[in-house]
Amino acid sequence: MSVLRLLWSNMTHRKMLSLLTILSVAVTVALIVFLLLCSDGVERGAEKGYGPFEVTIGAKGSSSQLALNTYYHIGAPTGNVPFTLLEEVRKDTQVEAAYAMTTGDQLNGFPIVGMEPGYFATRYGTDTKMAQGKLYGQLGEAVIGSYAAKTMGLHIGDRFQGAHGLVKGAADVDDDDEDEPGHEEHDHHHSFSYTVVGILSPLLTSDDRAVFTTLDYAWAVHESQQGDHKEVTAILVKPKTLLGAQAVKTKFGQISNVQAIYTSKAVADVVNVVDQGAQALSVVTAVCIVLAAVSIVLSLIAAVNERKKDVGLLRLIGKSKRFIWMSLIGEGLLLTLIGLLIGLIAGHAGGYASREAVFEFTGLQIESWGWMPGELLLVAGTLLIGIVASIGPALQAYRVDPLQLFRS
Fold first, then answer.
1. 398, β-bridge pairs
2. Which of 106, 136, 200, 371 could disulfide-pair with 141, CB 3.0 to 4.6 Å?
């Protein structure tokens, strides 16, 4: 009888206990894999989330909020700054490029972002191609991110109206509310139509879930922003050098009611908060690992009396020590291996199933079927736990004198 056949026979003899052991290992591994996928998505999103725009200028408030709203289209803006500030920034000798952004409206939950067309070439390179159509050039023209276009089923030539606010349904107005404040603004939104002139190729950033249009759309739908009262949500600055970034931040950060932030630092602060949350989840993961190891030990201890007889018989018929030890440790290792494989598949499948939901709410891309660097350590660690958990019951079974066992 081969070792594998013997191990399989032992496992199927205690089906329920074996299934519970495999399940505990699989759940633990799947949870760790999913955390690795999310962590990798956060890191990659932080790396390419803001492109070359090392400085961001906006209204006073939270620097993290400004960065998240500007580059990840998450949350509300900190406020507005005067449009005239853009020209001052562009005149600075330390600035290579600067673009203003307006936001505050949405289409079915996807943010409508006013942005000058040059932004795309500066951030993504001049070879950035449209999947369909062209970039906008006139008021009322819009370009849709690849994910947003796919989700809403928009095509070239389609027309739509935006809604005020950043939450889907925030601008819905009942007929009974005509006399309430804000009704005129909502009507104004409904009277302003956009035409889809282009759909972006997948950029693998939060811009995939945004609707882009001309910078002046906000001034057209908000009548209060006219003439000298024009405002923008943020100014994205690409400095010529790192020293230039420091000079730009210092200069424009001194203006009243204006903040200038290092984009990388603000994004790093957000990543640190996420890492703290991941550390809290790692405690739960550690508990799961302990439970999985205990499950393996209990499964093998429960069968230790049967294993004693098996070992005694194997020794009496002259099987080698190597064969016997493989039969003893192999059962725990095989249970661990099966649970490991199921967990790896389940973890990646969970990442694949939730990738769109995660991207819609966070703008982070999960490479669901990519091999994470930490997975090799996970595989080695899981198998090691399986071996260690098997040693105790194996020693207990091996130390029995076969002659004494069969005499009794």
1. none
2. 136
Calpha distance 211→113 (Å, rounded)? 6
Q: What is the DSSP string of 147-166?
A: HHHHHHT--TT-EEE-EESS
Q: Tokens 């598949």 identify what position?
A: 345
What is the dihedral sign for C-alpha 29, 35, 39, 45?
A: positive
Q: Is residue 400 located within the same domain as residue 296?
A: yes
- SS3 assignment, position 87: helix
The yes-or-no verdict on residue 265 having pLDDT over 70 is: yes
Specify the length of the chain in residues.
408
Residues 203 and 127 sit within 8 Å (Cβ to Cβ): no
- Closest alpha carbon to 18 in 347, 368, 374, 339: 339
In DSSP notation, 322-335 reads HHHHHHHHHHHHHH
Please tell me the distance from the alpha carbon of residue 151 to that of residue 169, in angstroms, as a whole number: 17
DSSP-derived pairing of the beta strands 55-59 and 141-144: unpaired
Closest CA to 28 of 290, 280, 277: 290
Tokens coding 27? 């759940």
pLDDT, residue 129, reads 75
Phi, psi at 110, each rounded to 5°: -95, 130
Model confidence band, residue 225 (pLDDT cutoffs 50, 70, 90): low
What is the tally of structural domains in the chain? Answer: 2
Which residue type occupies 141? E
- How does DSSP assign 334-355, residue by residue? HHHHHHHHHHHHHHHHHHHHHH
Task: Tell me which amino acid residue 251 is.
Answer: K
**Over 50: is that where the pLDDT of 173 sits?**
no
Q: What distance in Å separates the CA atoms of residue 225 and residue 180, rounded to the nearest whole number?
A: 21
Q: Which of 268, 293, 318 is the last residue of a domain?
A: 268
- Token digits for 248? 């730009």
pTM, rounded to two decimals: 0.69
Average pLDDT, the chain: 80
User: How far is residue 46's CA from residue 58's CA, in Å, rounded to a whole number?
Assistant: 20
* φ and ψ at residue 59, rounded to 5 degrees: -75, 155
Residues 72 and 200 in one domain: yes
Scan for tokens 């070792």, then name that residue: 3
Residues 97 and 143 in one domain: yes
Enclosing domain of residue 284:
3-45+270-407
pLDDT for res 296: 77
